[in-house]
Amino acid sequence: MQASLKKSLYLGLAALSFVAAGAAATTTASAKSYATVKTNTTLTTAATDRNVNLTGTNAIYTKAGTVKGAKIVAPTTTAKKLNKSTNGSANFRAYRVATTNRGSVYYKVVSFDGSYRGWVYGGKSTSKFAGGVASYDTTKTATAPSSSAVYTLKSSAVSTTSNTAFYAQPAWAEYKIGRAKVNGVTLTSTSAYKDTQFTFSDAVTNRAGDTFYKIATAPGATDLVGQWVAASAVTSPSDFNASTQVKINITTTDGTSVASFNYTPTTATGEGTAVDLSSDSALSTKADDAATAAGYKLKTSDNVNQAALKAATIGGTVTLYATKSDQVSMNTTVYIAQSGSVTPVKATTTSDASVTKPSDAENVIVTPTTAFTPFTGAEGATYTAADALAYLNGNSTLKTLYSPKFQDTNASGTTTWYEYVYTPQSASAGTYDASESVQAVYTATKTATTAPTGTTTTGTATGALDN
């Protein structure tokens, strides 16, 4: 009995030893089973060629999924939902590629809204996307309006505080490319374009099914040409109602098209009904505004225009004639925003090359003597703040102005020559008028400089400033 028991215990311990040894071997093998990254490089192909969609077959990890320490960022259940999403934020951009010692390829991707970022299995070849990612066109071709069809912003899209209409690229079409930019500044209002007449050259729909039109022409707002507008933000005055409206075409005597719109009289309805519009003040204002916005002058009181307006009929077309507005030039009034100052101060000008103390140089501009190109436009036409700021930044004389030089003590206690360097910060919108000037605010920066070579500047003032 005891011999039998001893034998059983011996066999049991032997079996346990075998199992333990096997477990240890398994643990060792598991530790050695992690993949290692052999290459990890930045993708350099065109950004649009790296737009991808998750396929839903693989999760997103903090690092290549088979590498030790990889954690899940988004499981396959989430990846599947993103694959089927109709929201543009579910588009992804691939920007790095890694390969492992097992021959697997992983792509580092980021969702267009930045919510998900990590590595996803991409197959066995770096020459094409596979596995958990697939190449993806973020837009699809749509039918564009006729190239001659004229559109304007809907009233609901006109705002002084927001821009939901204009985009540099259609919404969610490209990673980190959103609202339209004018002179490098993101457009944050649309009120300046409330009367602009647009034509379009292309159309696409995005992942959400929203349609966008590419702007081909925009008289008076050429800064928007080539950018995109949401189709839902524009309406076509070309959608003519022959039972209630009269089509108004504004042109020049040489046949140049200036503007067109549909007008709804309040005094008559029914196609073919005669309607005298010669004294309709609302029409006169609308026609004048449309011509002015395009840089032309229109007088509905002219004999030719009066005759056409008197002969108008519902459902018919009236042609009004405009002339090119006179071109006027404007100079600039500068206000200085000193560091710590709440309200910009109107600058004064001087021909003095230097002053005795720093305070004498504050808000003072050495009068420019170099030739400059004035701010020019059609008399009566409006310009935006962005138009004016772009002019200042692009003008070799006005993009940088200077104060008289002065001496002051630097941080090391050494007396040094300084000057204030003034650069454009902002400008106001306005109307082209030869009796007015561009209103601009400049930022002042105290800058070390060289000693002056004389007591006054040389040259003759060119009239660049109205200070």
UniProtKB/TrEMBL annotation:
Signal peptide interval: 1-31
Keyword Signal tagged: yes
Keywords associated with the record: Signal
Superkingdom field: Bacteria
Designated name of the protein: Surface layer protein slpm
Species this chain originates from: Secundilactobacillus collinoides DSM 20515 = JCM 1123
